[in-house]
Amino acid sequence: MSQPPSITLHVPEGTESDGQEPSPDSERALHTSFHQLILEQSSLIEAGLELEMKERDRESPACLAPPDACAAAWPEPGQGEQCPGYSSASLQILASMPSRTIGRSLGAIISQYCNRTARLRRRSSRPPLQQLCRAARPSLRQYDLDTDPARATLEDKWSLLVKELLSLSPYQRSQMLLTLPISLAEKRTLRRQVNRQRGLLRQHAQHWAPSSPCGWSIVYVGLGCRGLWYRLLSLLRTAQPWHYTLKQISGRFGSSVLSYFLFLKTLLMFNFFSFLILLAFVVALQAVYPPPSASPPPFTGLELLTGAGYFTHSLLYYGYYSNVTLNDPCTPGSKGSACPPAAPPFPYNMPLAYLFSVGVSFLVTCILLVYCVSCSFRESVGSSLGDLAAKVFCAWDFKVIQRRSVKLQCENFCTQLKELLAEQRSRSHSQSLCQRLRHCIVVLLAWTLALGSVLGCTLAVHHLSKHMHVVQQEQRAQGSGRWQQEAILLVLPLVVSLLNALMPHLYNLLAMWEKQDSPVTQVYVAICRNLILKMVVLSLLCFQWLSRSVVCSTEECWETCVGQDLYRFVVMDFIFTLLDTLFGELVWRLILEKRLRQRPEFDIARNVLELIYGQTLTWLGILFAPLLPAVQMLKLLLLFYIKKTSLMRNCQSPSKPWQASHMSTIFITLLCFPFFLGATIFLSYTIWSVQPSETCGPFRGLETIYKSGKSWVLVLQKSNPNITWFAWVHQHLVENTFLLFFTSGALLAVIYFYIQVVRGQQRVICLLREQIAKEGEDKIFLMQKLHSVYEQRERRA
């Protein structure tokens, strides 16, 4: 039988050096050459058609194509292993396509991976990619190393590949073996040969073992230190807080419910850093040097709710902190009027430390927020609908061997598959024009009711605040008891927390009326409505606090009154969260189990907005109550265990499983821009424009809080004329508001740039997936075209 002529695809070579792959720029030349090859092959078919027909009549072959190319064609159903009637030239062109060259022969594969391991081993000595010209950069195609007739045999290539694999690290070796496009039997053979060579190398190394006891002790110490280091690395992940609990929640309830607990963990980290800064530079030093103050009233227990009484003159609030330089013998409180000749060992300016500690706390929180937002955007790029095949075939972790871990991973795997399938089903649902029009009208009416309820709640809070302010002044004039005065302080936080607890249920009824098909859209709409309510109420409260119309039990320090108000709001928010967990999940679960034999679902939108609302109150109160982050940390710790217990015992997995890949990004973004930015504006306005109290706090007697930094610079300039440059820097960089606006604008521009980069990467990923799908269709299209040309020439002959 005559063999068909081999067809070689010649690609124009560039300025590439030996050992380097062609660049992606030459791929256009590749497709041009391939098109020319098709035209040349068509002319060859026309010229040699008669000769080929004679050969077929003489030899009567079953199939002119080689076995591997024949197997690569698409047989018709029912044909079994019979080769279709494609010409040998068509099958040769199909075998020479770029997507088929990598699997053409075992020798080419071994040569390719031998070169790849060599490049991986020599990567440290290669120049950076930026220093190479575009024609010399690596490409993803054309590992055609088997075209040289002087190439070594298959056994030599195999031994060379084993040698190169031995030079890699164990992790790189295992990854390289996994990516080899050969059969499992050949992979096992290759792995056995590598292990055999490693055993020989170990035996050779044992002959070189140290002979003295000191040498053996050094070897044992090194091995012990390495084993200890590996154990410490393995304990890092298990040492993370709530590691197993989060896995358990993800396995039973999916990534949507898990995003709530991950968000709570992130907020706990923010408050920990803020509390650590304030404790180290303000609270601890003021506790060591307490200011002279009157004896506090006795502790009654009501202070845990109101924050007043015993807590008023304590480290919890702004009014307790002094405005002197700590450890300075020249302060008015020191004995005598003359200062000692010896300088104090560690003078500490408390007003300056208070201001800079609050500023650094917000700066660290801003950096962490931007970092979390960027990480969330980066993680959300790879999440899309095309991950279903990868999830089915590649998601199982074969390193898990414990029975409990295997069961947990199986639950998590099944839940993720449900999420992906539910999201695909929701996207494939289509509606008619009348259904869409009716749905738009229902959504418009629901939004009208939601915005009307927000307006009503805002007016109610405004009138209630004014009324309680009048009642408080009347009770002071009448000389009412202490318990009655402190109980009135709880009315406004009680009403606001009650509205924040009841209105989300109204919004859930509106969502049921809207009948959103996608659970993601339903959660986004609920978050948006709750967000508008909380933002409007908080804006009204901030306006009242800055206008000094606050309900306060003392008149001498309005900052302490604002701090007490914020403390009461945080405590009331925690109490209503507990009540909602008790009645909204436990009691509702008992009712549903008796009536419908099912359990309620975990409301992600409402619970996440409660966390954001509580964290915003903490940021607003850092200036007025430095220990408020500690209160928030205790609240978050209790919330985690309470919500986790209630989730496991009272709730069921979502009836519509959905993928929360973008949910964490939405949570962090909402926390960053509407709430953290609003809290920063509120505190910045307080520091730059509002006059502090005259009788209490570290900034008493100043026009604004910001003046403390300016007065400190003037004192430094008078004490040492050589540092006048520092005063110039403070005047032109710190006092100038242009720098603040420029920094904020640059930060927003960077965030916008990263958002656009992420969107561009998502678009590129979609285009690459579409290209992968189209490359499979290219083969069928090319075969049909070549076969039609061949049939036309055959009919003409």
Automatic annotation (TrEMBL):
GO terms for cellular component: plasma membrane. It is a multi-pass membrane protein. Keywords: Membrane, Transmembrane, Transmembrane helix. It is found in: Membrane. Residues 557-661 form the TMC domain. The chain crosses the membrane at residues 257-289, 352-373, 440-461, 487-511, 523-546, 617-642, 663-688, 738-755. Signal peptide: none annotated. Residues 1-31 are annotated as: Disordered. Belongs to the TMC family. PANTHER family: TRANSMEMBRANE CHANNEL-LIKE PROTEIN 6, TRANSMEMBRANE CHANNEL-RELATED. This is Transmembrane channel-like protein. It comes from Pipra filicauda.
